[in-house]
């Protein structure tokens, strides 16, 4: 009697274990929605992306799938208590996968494989070309025969070792009932090698071993360049990942200390942070005073003072003194982790240009095969020479391979995302780049966007101490800039709060000693029928204190607004602040359209009205109350200082104080759009010229291989122009030197 379970039970147990592992590795997004990341090494082109995304969407309980080509990673959102059968589904699609593990600095195996294959192909191709020169120069029959066999011997390892990259991909596609760009490549090089071997055996005058090996060599050059460009984009992500410590010193309640892996650090834990350490997770300082290098979050090189009550973000550097902080969120939800996810997602969006390229590539392979076959039939009918007919068909098959078309969009998106990241601007996906390039209107929030959002309380000497203390206690429950200012300036309080509720765009209410207190808009706090009146503290509808603030323009605001005006963009301010405060900022910046006192829903209505008028609006905002407007706009942008929900809703996040990030992102997006269109044009023009010439029989397989490879390299080189181009908007240039500007009075919470 065997002690082993039946085979079918063992397989089922393995599947259940894999699904349980996926469930444990998933992130809980709330509302029963989970996300898991799976590494799929076999993904390398637009056709692969389409197949994986479409296939996984058919799995029950899967709601969203997105493939990142640079990291070979698939992010899957699923709903329910039990993880879906994702790994078996990938196996069935021909793309075996496993749980994604963050890059730990290990050398990239794919790059090494490409370089080795490229070296073998280059050695074989160059030597065969040298032998071919002798044959073309008129070698006698015996010499030609010997050189052809030597060429065959050199071509064989190139086909088997270097060509396996294309063969493996083509076979994976075909055995799953689909096609990709590597199918015509594999057919072309196989036919060229087979026909050349036939001619060699029969002592023919011509052989095309040079065409087969040169095609592999130049295709590998293009594929390696593409991989290197994606690795450059990933290098930025790895740089961010290295800013996160692998562990943290956690303080126990009994006074002991434990060093825990960063993944095991939970909200509520207390962490000891020595001078020189990086902050491992987001938290709030409980003890100690120090200076922090917050350049990763703000772009500011000057140290910022940190003291009890200060919020700190993962990745910032503790410079001068020991600190004790209480953890606010898990490492996977920290500011640094969010920045990493934003950077990795930069090329993953299903943008319009990429969808267009995908559709073209999907139709291209069948068209190429049909064209080559019809060319063969035509030449057979015209000449009756099967050798000549198949030679021309091979040239057609090779010269029309859609590699350039497949590279046209993703390579530009990778370069553009890298360019923006170097200027401290994060972009979520390629569709955001396209939508940014289309805008004709820019809509700004005020507090925290056009201004720094670091208000200063004025006239506080006239506020009763007890009322001030209660206001500070209530304000301490909010992250709104005005609330933080009140909490920082208010005296200590011994009151206790209950039933605290924050109303976005209105204020905060809480019960103190059985009385209902409201801190926020006067019209809301006092139940008056007016919309303005500043920020007040009211008890049961009776005003106890009024608060007045002042704020400064964000550095670079004037230059950014003027640049966008010169580009012909319509400018507007939509703010929840008072009429006077909004008018002062709008007048200082020369923005004619300004609306004040708007609730979040009213901002959304204004953006929807612009859309109905055919306008494509960019929304720039930072507050909790701006999240609906950011989501409703054609494209949106938020500073890194924005509330978490605002950063999540925005398409772009800029990690700096200067507002010149907005026109810079617009300029890079427009340049990326131009390069994509140029790449499409290059691919179409190339095929329009090359295909008729090949069908007419004027192109040998070798020339076809060189021409097709050149078209792919040309597309990559055109995309690289985006890195070399000097922007009209200089990041951190004059805008950084521009002073913060005059102080403007703030009358109400935004």
Question: What does it look like?
Answer:
It is built from 27 helices and 28 strands. It is α+β, with helices and mostly antiparallel strands and 750 residues long. Strands 15-27-26-25-16-23-24 form a seven-stranded mixed beta sheet, sandwiched between helices. Strands 17, 18, 19, 20, 21, 22 and 28 form a seven-stranded antiparallel beta sheet that branches. Strands 7-6-8-14-9-12 form a six-stranded antiparallel beta sheet, with no helix packed on it. It folds into five domains: 7-99, Alpha-Beta Plaits, CATH 3.30.70; 109-237 and 346-412 and 702-721, no CATH class; 247-333, Distorted Sandwich (Calcium-transporting ATPase, cytoplasmic transduction domain A); 414-452 and 554-670, 3-Layer(aba) Sandwich (Rossmann fold); 456-552, Calcium-transporting ATPase, cytoplasmic domain N (3-Layer(aba) Sandwich). Mean pLDDT is 76; it is low at 1-15, 346-350 and 730-750. It is elongated and about 110 Å long. It comes from Aquamicrobium terrae. The chain crosses the membrane at residues 117-139, 145-162, 183-201, 207-225, 363-382, 388-416, 679-696, 702-720.
């Amino acid at each position: 009697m065997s002690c082993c379970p039946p085979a079918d039970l063992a397989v089922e147990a393995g599947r259940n274990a894999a699904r349980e592992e996926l469930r444990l590795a998933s992130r809980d997004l709330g509302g029963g929605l989970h996300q898991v990341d799976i590494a799929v090494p076999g993904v390398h082109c637009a056709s692969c992306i389409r197949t994986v995304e479409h296939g996984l969407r058919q799995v029950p309980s899967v709601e969203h799938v997105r493939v990142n080509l640079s990291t070979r990673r698939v992010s899957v959102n699923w709903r329910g208590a039990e993880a879906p059968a994702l790994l078996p589904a990938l196996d069935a699609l021909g793309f075996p996968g496993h749980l994604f593990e963050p890059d730990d600095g290990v050398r990239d195996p794919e790059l090494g494989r490409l370089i080795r294959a490229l070296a073998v192909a280059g050695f074989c191709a160059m030597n065969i070309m040298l032998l071919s020169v002798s044959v073309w120069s008129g070698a006698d029959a015996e010499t030609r025969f010997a050189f052809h066999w030597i060429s065959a011997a050199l071509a064989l390892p190139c086909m088997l070792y270097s060509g396996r990259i294309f063969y493996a991909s083509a076979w994976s596609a075909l055995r799953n009932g689909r096609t990709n760009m590597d199918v015509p490549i594999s057919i072309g090089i196989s036919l060229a090698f087979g026909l050349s071997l036939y001619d060699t055996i029969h002592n023919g005058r011509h052989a095309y071993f040079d065409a087969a090996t040169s095609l592999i060599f130049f295709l590998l050059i293009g594929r390696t360049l593409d991989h290197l460009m994606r690795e450059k984009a990933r290098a930025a992500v790895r740089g961010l990942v290295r800013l996160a410590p692998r562990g943290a010193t956690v303080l126990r309640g009994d006074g002991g200390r434990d060093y825990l892996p960063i993944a095991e650090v939970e909200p509520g834990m207390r962490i000891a942070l020595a001078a020189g350490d990086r902050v491992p997770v987001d938290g709030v300082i409980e003890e100690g005073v120090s200076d922090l290098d917050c350049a990763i979050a703000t772009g500011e090189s000057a140290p910022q003072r940190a003291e009890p009550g200060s919020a700190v973000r993962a990745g910032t550097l503790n410079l001068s003194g020991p600190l004790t902080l209480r953890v606010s969120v898990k490492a996977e939800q920290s500011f640094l982790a969010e920045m990493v996810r934003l950077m990795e997602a930069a090329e993953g969006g299903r943008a319009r240009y990429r969808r267009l390229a995908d559709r073209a590539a999907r139709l291209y392979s069948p068209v190429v095969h049909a064209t080559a076959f019809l060319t063969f039939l035509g030449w057979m009918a015209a000449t009756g020479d099967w050798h000549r007919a198949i030679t021309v068909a091979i040239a057609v098959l090779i010269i029309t391979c859609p590699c350039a078309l497949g590279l046209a969009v993703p390579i530009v998106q990778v370069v553009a995302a890298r360019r923006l990241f170097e200027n401290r601007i994060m972009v979520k996906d390629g569709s955001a780049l396209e939508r940014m390039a289309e805008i004709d209107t820019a809509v700004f929030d005020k507090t925290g966007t056009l201004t720094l959002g670091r208000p200063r309380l004025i006239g506080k000497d006239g506020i009763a101490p007890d009322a001030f203390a209660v206001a500070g206690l209530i304000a301490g429950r909010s992250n709104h800039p005005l609330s933080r200012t009140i909490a920082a300036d208010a005296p200590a309080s011994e009151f206790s709060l209950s039933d605290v509720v924050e109303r976005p765009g209105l204020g905060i209410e809480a019960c103190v000693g059985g009385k209902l207190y409201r801190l926020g808009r006067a019209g809301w706090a006092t139940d008056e029928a007016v919309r303005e009146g500043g920020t007040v503290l009211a008890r049961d509808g009776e005003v106890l204190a009024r608060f007045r603030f002042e704020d400064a323009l964000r550095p670079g605001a004037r230059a950014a607004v003027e640049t966008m005006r010169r580009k012909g963009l319509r400018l507007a301010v939509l703010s929840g602040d008072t009429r006077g405060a909004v008018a002062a900022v709008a007048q200082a910046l020369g923005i004619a359209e300004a609306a004040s006192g708007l609730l979040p829903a009213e901002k959304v209505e204004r953006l929807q009205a612009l859309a109905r008028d055919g306008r494509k609006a960019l929304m720039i905002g930072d507050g909790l109350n701006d999240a609906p407007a950011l989501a409703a706009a054609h494209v949106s942008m938020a500073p890194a200082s924005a509330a978490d929900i605002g950063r999540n809703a925005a398409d772009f996040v800029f990690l700096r104080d200067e507002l010149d990030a907005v026109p810079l992102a617009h300029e890079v997006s427009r340049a990326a759009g131009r390069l994509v269109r140029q790449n499409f044009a290059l691919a179409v023009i190339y095929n329009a010229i090359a295909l008729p010439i090949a069908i007419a029989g004027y192109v040998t397989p070798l020339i076809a291989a060189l021409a097709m490879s050149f078209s792919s390299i040309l597309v990559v080189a055109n995309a690289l122009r985006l890195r070399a181009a000097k922007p009209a908007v200089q990041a951190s240039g004059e805008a950084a030197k521009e002073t913060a500007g005059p102080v403007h009075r703030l009358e109400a919470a935004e």
